[in-house]
Design brief:
5-stranded mixed sheet; transport; single chain; iron-sulfur; about 90 residues; two-stranded antiparallel sheet; Ubiquitin-like (UB roll); about 30% strand; ubiquinone
Length: about 90
C-alpha cells in the first residue's frame, strides 16, 4: 500500500503549522478542522470569497475555479497542496 504524503500548511498568524492529509477535500477543510475562521460561500470556486495569498509552495485545483484568481492567490475551497505551503489569510 502506498502512503499518501502529509504536507504542512503554515498560516501567517498561526504559530504551529497544520497537517494536510490526503483524505481532506481542500485546504479550507483542513483550516476548518483546526477551528481557523475563514471566509467562504460557495465551496466550489465560483465566488472567490475564500481567496488567500500563497507565499510559498505549490498547490493544485481539484476543479478549475470560475472566480477570478490573481497571480499569487489561491482559492482555499478547491485547492490542495502539492508541497508544504505558506499562506496568508485576509484580515
Amino acid at each position: 500500500m502506498v502512503e499518501k504524503p502529509i504536507y504542512l500548511i503554515q498560516v501567517n498568524n498561526i504559530e504551529e503549522p497544520l497537517k494536510y492529509v490526503a483524505s481532506s477535500c481542500s485546504i479550507l477543510e483542513t483550516l476548518e478542522n483546526a477551528n481557523i475562521q475563514v471566509s467562504y460561500q460557495c465551496r466550489e470556486g465560483f465566488c472567490g470569497a475564500c481567496r488567500a495569498k500563497l507565499l510559498n509552495g505549490s498547490t493544485q485545483y481539484s476543479n478549475e475555479p470560475l472566480a477570478f484568481v490573481r497571480e499569487g492567490d489561491i482559492l482555499l475551497c478547491c485547492s490542495k497542496p502539492l508541497s508544504d505551503i505558506t499562506i496568508e489569510l485576509p484580515e
